[in-house]
């Protein structure tokens, strides 16, 4: 019998994807973090034009220079950051960026701090690098925001990195500037890397996004086009950081992916150039959906934190696993909180990335469940 690599022993297949596979024809899926919008029309046209022009060949491993220069302009305009094209690499979504960063930066038994609750890929990526994920438990009382004090208490000589995610998946929390800056100071004092997942950066309802890269050079910024531009299937993101670090990460990217789809890069370039109004309308609609789902949770008697960004809510509920099973029988797909951290046994994640009409019907179905 073929023996698999031991590094896989701690890693499970994503329960989110498992739930995705279980969706029936009449079920309403509140489990997947995928906007239900079509990609911007101008992006679609640019891709068709690129296809007609034969732009279907390899690009630079780093990504098209035109796209990297446009990302550089975006980071300067939106985030007041100075990353030139040599400090930016285009990746197959933010997921690849996270994976290759972990493979490049962490050694066996290194400790990497991760948010709890936090996106399940953080733990898996670190474990696949044979490093050790250390959960930073955030509290419902603090709206699940990671605090400086929580991080400080976990730092030791083995700490090699921390993953920050604001706005947060699964909680919708937006970190405070003071905590981000204080954690950045820690990264400098203790010489560890910050991996900042900023994929939900543009989807904020209250508060403001602050990138750690503004306060510490020990930062790798990860972002992409899946959420704000609904370009999930085009699989395109990017990673920005010190050019000497990007050069090393390129080694993993080069032998793993070679380069990102040329047509996806055309679409990403057009999205950055001419899709601001699209993003504004998308966020406006997500705000409307958020208000609907929170009103529905009030009616259901479920407690939730202050949702400031992204398109998730993470209500507390006893016997969360049983509730998810009952919801599925009622035709609503949810994700149990246990997938997002050690402290999340009594939570469920709800994604309101589906239509307003679907959300209304989902709430009506959930009202039939006996707690």
What does this structure look like?
The chain is of the alpha/beta class. It is 40% helix and 13% strand. It has two domains: 6-39 and 277-366, Aspartate Aminotransferase, domain 1 (Alpha-Beta Complex); 55-274, Aspartate Aminotransferase, domain 2 (3-Layer(aba) Sandwich). The chain has twelve helices and twelve strands. The strands form three sheets. It has a seven-stranded mixed beta sheet with strand order 2-8-7-6-5-3-4, with helices on both faces. Strands 9-12-11 form a three-stranded antiparallel beta sheet. α7 (177-189) links the parallel β5 (159-165) and β6. The longest helix has 25 residues, at 276-300. The chain is globular, with a radius of gyration of 20 Å. The model has no long low-confidence stretch (mean pLDDT 96).
Structural features:
single chain, 371 residues, alpha/beta, Aspartate Aminotransferase, domain 1, Aspartate Aminotransferase, domain 2, seven-stranded mixed β-sheet, three-stranded antiparallel β-sheet
């Amino acid at each position: 019998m073929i023996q698999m690599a031991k590094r896989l022993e701690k890693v499970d297949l994503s329960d989110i994807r498992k739930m995705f596979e279980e969706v029936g024809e009449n079920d309403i899926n509140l489990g997947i973090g995928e906007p239900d919008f079509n990609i911007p029309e101008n992006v679609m046209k640019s891709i068709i034009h690129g296809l007609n022009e034969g732009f279907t060949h390899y690009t630079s491993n780093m990504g098209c220079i035109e796209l990297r220069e446009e990302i550089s302009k975006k980071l300067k305009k939106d985030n007041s950051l100075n990353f030139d094209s040599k400090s930016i690499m285009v990746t197959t979504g933010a997921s690849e960026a996270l994976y290759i960063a972990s493979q490049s930066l962490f050694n066996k038994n290194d400790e990497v701090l991760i948010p709890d609750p936090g996106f399940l890929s953080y733990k898996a990526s670190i474990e696949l690098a044979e490093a050790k994920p250390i959960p930073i438990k955030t509290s419902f009382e603090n709206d699940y925001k990671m605090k400086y004090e929580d991080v400080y208490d976990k730092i030791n000589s083995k700490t090699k990195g921390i993953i920050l995610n604001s706005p947060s998946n699964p909680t919708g929390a937006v970190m405070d500037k003071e905590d981000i800056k204080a954690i950045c100071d820690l990264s400098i004092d203790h010489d560890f890397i910050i991996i900042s997942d900023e994929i939900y950066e543009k989807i904020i309802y209250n508060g403001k996004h602050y990138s750690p890269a503004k306060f510490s050079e020990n930062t790798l910024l990860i972002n992409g086009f899946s959420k704000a531009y609904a370009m999930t299937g085009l699989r395109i993101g990017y990673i920005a950081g010190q050019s000497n670090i990007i050069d090393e990460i390129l080694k993993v990217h080069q032998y793993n992916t070679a380069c990102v789809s040329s047509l996806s890069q055309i679409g990403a370039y057009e999205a950055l150039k001419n899709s601001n109004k699209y993003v504004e309308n998308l966020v406006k609609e997500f705000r409307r959906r958020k208000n609907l789902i929170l009103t529905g949770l009030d009616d259901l008697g479920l407690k939730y934190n202050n949702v400031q960004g992204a398109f998730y809510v993470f209500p507390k509920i006893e016997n969360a696993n049983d509730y998810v099973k009952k919801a599925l029988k009622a035709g609503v797909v949810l994700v149990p909180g246990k997938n997002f951290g050690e402290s999340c046994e009594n939570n469920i994640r709800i994604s309101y990335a589906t239509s307003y009409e679907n959300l209304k019907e989902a709430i009506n179905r959930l009202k039939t469940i006996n707690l």
